[in-house]
Amino acid sequence: MKKLIGLLTLFLIGVLAVCGIANATITIDKVKVDGDDLSDGINTLGIERGEEFDVKVLITSDEDIDDVQVEAYLRGYDHDDRIEDITDTFDMKANVTYVKKLTLKLPQRMDTDNYELRIRAEGRTDEAVTKTYDLSVESDRHVLYIKDIVLSPENSVKAGRA
Description:
The chain is 13% helix and 43% strand. By secondary structure, it is mainly β.
């Protein structure tokens, strides 16, 4: 009976040790949008639609990880355009902070509403780490965009004509 308990204890310790070794963790330390530091769930950053903004992500890992990518994206936009950017793959060394810069462009026809900016970091076979930040998409007041004009006759305007 004592041998069985001893073997089960040894087996359990071995399993826990392997689990601790196998789980390399990536940590998203800080996210900045156009220089403004975002805090988890505290700030809602207001940005204007039609603008392009830079996202700076600082990440670290407690172990060496190969083929890591960092992605920034917004979901809930109901047109075909995707609002996202992703880095090329890179290798991370243990306890080294990496700075990755991404760029997102908000379409002009995007709804003015609250969205979530999601930052995701993951390796080829490692578990993904995602952090979410609140964004408020706003627009200028009384803005009018002229996309096209039609003149009749061509290239000139005559009184009483379209």
